[in-house]
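Quick sanity check, SPASM domain-containing protein:
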Amino acid sequence: MTEAAHSSLVHAFDSQRGRHILVPDGSRIYDLASELALEVDTAVSAGEDAVARLLERYGLASSPYIDDVPLQDPPIRALSLAVAQKCNLGCAYCYAQGGDFGGVPRNMSWPIARAAIERLIDAAEPGQRVNLAFLGGEPLVNRALVRDATAFAADQAKARDIRVGFSITTNGTLLSAEDASFFEEYGFAVTVSLDGVGDTHDRLRPFRGGDGSYARIMARVKPLLDRQQRMQVSARVTVTPLNIQLQDMLDEFVATGFHSVGFSPMLSAPMGRLELNQPDLMTMLEEMIGCARKFESETVAGRRYPFSNMTEALRQIHRGIHRPYSCGAGAGYFGVSAEGGLFACHRFVDDENGRLGDVKDGLQRDKRNAWLAERHVHRQEPCSKCWARYLCGGGCHHEVIYRGRPACDFIRGWLHHCLITYVNVMEQRPDFFSAERS
């Protein structure tokens, strides 16, 4: 992979049919004739003022799509409930520190879950959609609460003409055939954490007694894979230096029948164990690009290949996404601790750096708005000088706070390849994007 000329104002890239530029402001993509491509290269070499003049000359300058004004008081649209701050696995790099977030293992009570759901539903208007997620620890340790909370949320939403989506992230070891029926009934998005195939997964995600968990997970997830209609079952892989060979893993999980498969780099672990360093991230980038090339060839051939990192990136590029935040953490999305605290997201549960209120008294307005002001991408450095800033949004808040920005080159390299793939797929299979909308 090679990157062509770029600045904070434009990023050039080459597809199968020629040179293009991304104008980050507004995430606009343009084809370049060869003469204009030379002008872009010359302007980039001359500096930002020259690029600005070039954009002005060709009518591509505009009022900023994103200004410096941070979000203020956006409504809550999604909550994740840490229904069980405990886990039966002993993964060394777990952001939840073995599931208990560094505290006493405990379950969420019904009054806490109910108060959280009522706060979510009350913030929505008829016709709007909200999302309720169940996480842990391992959420199925507290299966009864998951079921009660789901039924209650569905009833409350129906009574208010509000659409509600459900999701759960599980280690898969406690899944049952009855869970398959329940998740299918409510149309859950089920994410199973799988960090490799066979022994690789067992080494990374053992039971607390040391035994491997892979065989048990695959046996228990099969009824869910077989039942998928309203329910969608995905595999999520946390990538460490020990499971960084991704292409065979992706093929294996796709063949198994997962609705989608995605990879996430291990950038910040509580004790720093198994975090990726710069060489690891470049290796991961090469593997991701290999997966992307397989995705492109399969897609052009008309075959579904559910590599979620790429499908999500293409969907966002096609929508022209340009965002001042990397995600909804602290904006429309919050994590709820077992004790009822409202935190910026599920990774900040029981972390005072991310505590923004509680389900009983609601959000602390000033503290929450200060969080949003501080996390705006224009307040992040070196993001303001990066061409990828409005595609990336400044990176995961939790990882940036606790480890900094070790993955910027990885993210830019990945987005660069996503832009190339977008143009190639748009040229050869534009129907992919209409299918993605349906």
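Posting the structure with no commentary besides this: The first strand starts at residue 11 and ends at 15.
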